[in-house]
Amino acid sequence: MGSYQYFKRYKSGKVDTLLNKKLETVEWGKFNLEKLFGKSTRGKRLKSSDRILGTLPFVTAGEANEGISALIGNEVTIFSENTTTIDMFGSAKYRNYKYGGDDHIAVVHTENLQKFASIFVTSAIHKSSYTGEFHYGRNFYAKDADELNISLPIKNGKIDFKFMENFLAELELERIKELESYLLASGLKDYTLTNEEKQVLEDFKSGKIDFSEFRIGKLFEINTYKKRFDANKVTISSIGEPYVVRTSLNNGVRGYIDEDKQFLNEGNSISFGQDTATMFYQEKPYFTGDKIKIVKSKDSRFNRLNGLFFISTMTKSFSSFSWGGSSFSVNVIGNQLMKLPTKNKQPNYELMETLISAIQKLVIKEVVLYVDRKKQCN
């Protein structure tokens, strides 16, 4: 029954508690992946320089953008939707679309399962494969997938696919309700663009906005953390202050820790992972792990909205560097050029803020419509 712990959340509501009880009471069995789904398939290498722009998602190793590194038009093996990929680090992801994959990807052929059962199986795979055993020096390959054993719910000695389907359907419904409540409470359900936002979007699309290059060090101070907190020496939980590390997930926050507050780094700043170039806006004071720089604006107009614009353009500036191949020093970060909209040859903070506000509303609109569609289906 140990597998049910994987699906639990830090903060459980009433419905979560009921779902967790279902996971606790179900019977579990161990199954070999190859015996369930046949041999896994390894993708083929396609260098960045050889990729042709197109519409097919191309999956590589990594967490950013679900591992999709590009949209390509090359002739490659196309894998079916409703399958599972495992990257070189052992990270498993469900794919509900057709895609290509490089040689750091193993594809598990779950396409004959019902959608929710396939998602459940992906989670079970991830629990068994993403253990820290696989890294740059020891990659996860298709043969490792074939040897992998996973835990699945059983009934009368057979895999209980119906339980998986019902469990995920119930979980999705609960998350939709939570999302709708959040949108209402935060006021984000109002996605109507102001006239100013409409104009900025139109100007941006038509190329009417002037851009200039600025060195990051001219506009920001790049500071070292006040104290490094090693993950294996702190208690990470769901309470305390944010603990920011070099992950590309969850805004860089691995969890929360309760430590001496004099070592908190300033909020309203950007956390920068030195060997991953992962950047996130941090609204509140935070602790950090190793190799995190604190990028603090020299301008009082800096805030969350224009901060998100800065992160976008800074991320693009560092995109030519190979992931994990460099450790960016203060000088390298400070001297990196980024493109910003300008007014009177100076960064236009107001325009950046308005543009991000408009984009945020467009994204929220899709979320709201998604919630409404799901409610109608249920």
Write down the Rg. 23 Å
What structural class is derived from the secondary structure elements? alpha+beta
Classify the helix fraction into a percent range. 25-40%
Instruction: Report mean pLDDT, rounded to a whole number.
Output: 89
N- to C-terminal separation?
30 Å
* Anisotropy-based shape: globular
How many strand elements? 20
Strand content: 15-25%
The overall number of domains is: 2
Q: Tell me what the CATH architecture of the largest domain is.
A: Alpha-Beta Complex
- Main sheet record: 4 strands, antiparallel
| Strand order across the largest sheet | 2-8-5-6
Count of discrete alpha- or pi-helical segments spanning 4 or more residues = 10
Low-confidence regions: 1-12
Fold-level CATH name of the largest domain: Adenine-n6-DNA-methyltransferase TaqI, Chain A, domain 2
- SSE order, as H and E? HEHEEEEEEEHHEEHHEHEEEEEEEHHEEH
CATH fourth-tier homologous superfamily of the largest domain: DNA methylase specificity domains
What is the name of the CATH class of the largest domain?
Alpha Beta
